[in-house]
Design goal:
The complex is a heterodimer of chains A (about 140) and B (about 450).
Chain A lengths: L5 E5 L3 H13 L3 E5 L2 H10 L4 E4 L8 H11 L8 E5 L22 E4 L4 H17 L3 H7 L1
Helix pairs in contact in A: 2-3
Chain B lengths: L1 H39 L6 H22 L2 H5 L5 H25 L11 H12 L2 H20 L20 H83 L5 H33 L8 E4 H18 L3 E5 L6 E4 L1 H17 L6 E9 L2 E8 L20 H5 L8 H11 L3 E6 L5 E8 L3
Parallel strand pairs in B: 2-4
Antiparallel strand pairs in B: 1-3, 4-5, 5-7, 6-7
Classes of the chains: A alpha/beta (about 140), B alpha+beta (about 450).
Chain lengths: ~140, ~450
């Protein structure tokens, strides 16, 4: 890999973090990880990742949503691609309160756990390319 | 109160029938009088009778107008509405009785079989009104008929107008007649009020049954909702470890991990798979316990101390391994309870294992049994990490795990306490948790003494 991209994995399951790290590192990405929302915020503030893999249900059932929403609201982080990787999907009918805006964020991708390494790497590559093609435009537009 | 409102509507509807029936009576009376005047000569002087018919028609028109207009004014005030409608009906009936009496006076007196029209009113009053008003009407009718029987018939200009077959001049006839009449009235009042009271009782029973049925169906719907929610939760809880297993195996499958790392990841995968198996086992256990019919359970009277002895033997090794002090306090006399010793053993062991699991080395686990409140109270307390206040209400909910337990990565299925609670409940007991975070926890189980 010419330029080493950094990916942040936010998941409270250490086994998921560990195995995803292996897959991503083997594909040449640099990996950071966080086990909860506040840890993730800390990591992002230290270094802005090129992409975030975000789990939804951590210690709080909607912790991932809250983090994602916070990032989307902040012009500095708004253009980081987010892939929600979660055991919960709309298909399984898990009921999030629809009134609370914070429960819905515009993620770039939604993947159902477990994700095959192939799918994960393809999606990541696609999103990173798309981001490369129009750098910062997303963030600019949002910050107006 | 819907039952009250139903009574009001029913009474108003019946009051309406009464008004209708009175119109029919007026029509029939007018018809008979017209026939009589037309040549049948049933009656010599019909003028007074026409007057009575007109009188009835006038007051019926008045009541009809009143009934149409003031549903609002009758129902307006909530208090005593039924009583006011009943009074309205009673006034009508009293007027009817009066009109009937006048009618009788001009058409043959007590010998006219029309006198038994009073029965109709008394019966109706028994159905529509209170027992008291019904008897009042029966008395009024009796008094009016007695007046007709004993009143002089020669009212000056009216003499000759009144018809009189002459029987009423015989005192013994009048007495017998009045006695028979009074009996008829009171028996009618008695029978109808009794039947009506019985019907009303059944009606209110029916209402209560309908209400209970509605409540039950609501409860069932809520239960169904809870069940499907439970399915979703259970599926998710099983999916997490399986997703981790798949993820770990796929990572190993990339061939990019060192042999030591590979070994470690495979061990983790096995551990997670085992966790899933344990979860399934506990789910099955919970399902088994919930499906049990408490009525058909074979229960034995047993000494609860023996259950505790079994737990003591099982837990000792675990406690020692963690270097925990474990104390047992049991009473000197037998602690008789009725139940299934295997299930009770599981419940107590679960609590003891939790205490050991959530207490760091050097801590103490205390298991004490004492008589209390007509039964036995078992307290399992520890000096462990405790339970956050916010988590206490959800503690016995399936799959619930307190945040501090998750943060410390202490493994658990979240089903143990649900199983314990189910067992305790099946034995007619109760369970309570008291704790503060970092201050240890106490689980208190109360079981009734064996009868």
């Amino acid at each position: 890999m010419a330029q080493e991209k950094t990916i942040l994995i936010v998941d409270d399951d250490p086994d998921i973090v560990e195995s995803t790290r292996v897959v991503l590192e083997s594909a040449g990405y640099r990996v950071m990880s966080a086990a909860n929302g506040s840890e993730a915020t800390e990591r992002i503030e230290r270094q802005i990742p090129d992409l975030i893999l975000l789990d939804i249900m951590m210690a709080e059932p909607t912790e991932g949503f809250h983090l994602g929403y916070k990032l989307r609201e902040d012009p500095v982080y708004a253009n980081i691609p987010i892939i929600i990787v979660s055991g919960i999907s709309e298909k399984t009918g898990f009921n999030f309160s629809k009134e609370k805006k914070t429960d819905y964020i515009k993620a770039d991708e939604f993947l159902d756990k477990p994700v095959s390494p192939q799918t994960l790497l393809t999606k990541i590559a696609t999103l990173l390319e798309r981001k490369q093609a129009r750098p910062e435009s997303n963030g600019q537009a949002r910050s107006k | 109160m819907p039952a009250q409102q139903m009574a009001e509507t029913a009474l108003l509807a019946r009051c309406h029938w009464l008004l209708q029936a009175r119109w029919m009576f007026v029509a029939a009376l007018a018809g008979a009088l017209a026939l009589s005047d037309g040549g049948l000569k049933l009656q010599r002087h019909t003028a007074p009778l026409w007057a009575v018919a007109a009188f009835i028609a006038i007051y019926n028109a008045g009541f009809t107008a009143f009934e149409r207009r003031p549903k609002a004014c009758l129902i307006g005030e909530r208090r005593g509405v039924v009583e006011r409608i009943a009074a309205f009906v009673f006034i009508q009936m009293a007027l009817d009785a009066l009109a009937l009496t006048v009618l009788l006076s001009f058409s043959g007196g007590i010998e006219n079989p029309v006198s038994f029209f009073y029965i109709f009113h008394v019966a109706l009053a028994g159905i529509l009104l209170s027992r008291r008003l019904c008897y009042a009407l029966a008395s009024l009718a009796t008094a009016l008929v007695a007046a007709v029987a004993v009143a002089p018939m020669d009212y000056g200009f009216l003499s000759g107008v009144m018809q009189d077959a002459g029987l009423r001049r015989h005192g013994e006839f009048v007495v017998c007649y009045l006695a028979a009449f009074a009996c008829t009235m009171y028996v009618t009042a008695y029978v109808t009020t009794s039947v009506a009271a019985d019907l009303r009782k059944r009606e209110s029973e029916l209402l209560r049954t309908a209400e209970a049925l509605r409540e039950t169906s609501e409860k069932l719907a809520a239960l169904e909702e809870r069940k499907s929610q439970f399915m979703v939760t259970a599926a998710h809880q099983l999916k997490s470890p399986l997703a981790a297993v798949v993820s770990l195996l796929q990572a190993v499958g990339t061939g990019q991990v060192s042999p030591e790392k590979e070994k470690e990841m495979l061990a983790r995968a096995a551990a997670r798979a085992n966790g899933a198996v344990r979860q399934v086992q506990e789910l099955l256990e919970l399902a088994r316990l919930r499906a049990l019919d408490p009525e058909r359970q074979t229960r034995k009277v047993l000494d609860f101390r023996e259950v505790l002895d079994g737990v003591r033997a099982t837990i000792a090794a675990q406690a020692e391994e963690k270097r925990l002090k474990i104390e047992f306090q049991t009473p000197d006399r037998a602690a008789w309870v009725e139940g299934n010793s295997d299930d009770l053993f599981d419940a107590v062991l679960n609590l003891a294992e939790n205490a050991v699991k959530y207490t760091d080395s050097g801590g103490t686990v205390k298991i004490a049994l004492r008589p209390a409140d007509g039964g036995w109270e078992l307290a399992v307390s520890d000096t462990g990490i405790g339970i956050p206040q916010a988590a206490l209400p959800n503690l016995f909910q399936e799959f619930f795990r307190a945040g501090n337990a998750i943060r410390r990565k202490i493994e658990g299925t979240g089903l143990g306490l649900s199983i314990v609670e189910q067992i305790v409940r099946m034995h007619g007991g109760r369970i309570r948790a008291d704790s503060e975070e970092n201050r240890g926890a106490t689980f208190t189980v109360w079981l009734p003494r064996a009868p």
